[in-house]
Amino acid sequence: MSHKNMNINELAALLGSDYHRLTRMAQKGHIPSQTIRGEFRFNTLQICAWLQEILPTLEHSELLQIDTGIGQHRGASYLTPMIAPLLKTQAVTCDLDARTQNSVKRKLVALADTTACVYDSETLLDNLTCYALPCSATLVHPNKALPYALAEPVMAVAKTLGPVLCGHHPRTNVFFLCAAQDQTHHLHLLARVCRLLQDNDLVNQLHEAQTPLDIIEAITEAEDELTTSAV
Description:
Blueprint: H1 8-15, H2 19-27, E1 34-36, E2 39-41, H3 44-54, H4 60-74, E3 92-96, H5 101-113, H6 121-126, E4 128-132, E5 137-142, E6 154-164, E7 172-179, H7 183-196, H8 200-208, H9 212-229
């Protein structure tokens, strides 16, 4: 995704959304935008920040639209698994000994560091933010793309020994760290993880998992079902 401003048509294509709906949202100030010569323009960095905030709150159908739109923008199909292939056994654990949000972040980065996908673990750690979901799982991700900190997109998944309080959110014990070098891929990963975590069966399996393989198999099966059902 370039850093230039987008027009309404380009934003609609990226989000897989309706032109008229986005126009109404911009008119009401629900999307960060500027008006230039009577036409809406959307700053790419502002849109990326806005998407990161709203993705965890969206309905399934809205996430599917964004998954599809960003996938087409990247030249990737929404029918192709993209989370499961990133999961490496050494970056998945069922017994993370962490009791605070900061310790969860540090230990997730340490897990990600074992994959050889991370160049600069300090930069990754410094840019992490947390968003607890209603399903008792938490997204942990950078607040921007990190082109010089990562060699490849990276995922780490952990279940903590006990529930951890993340800000003002409910205590959770399942954490997903995801990050990519470019902003579009990063947003695509977030959209797909949010879609997956709306699957109650998957969430229950993650909470009950006893081994890293249990977690990997549950996510793989859920993503296969997610992509197959979208056909």
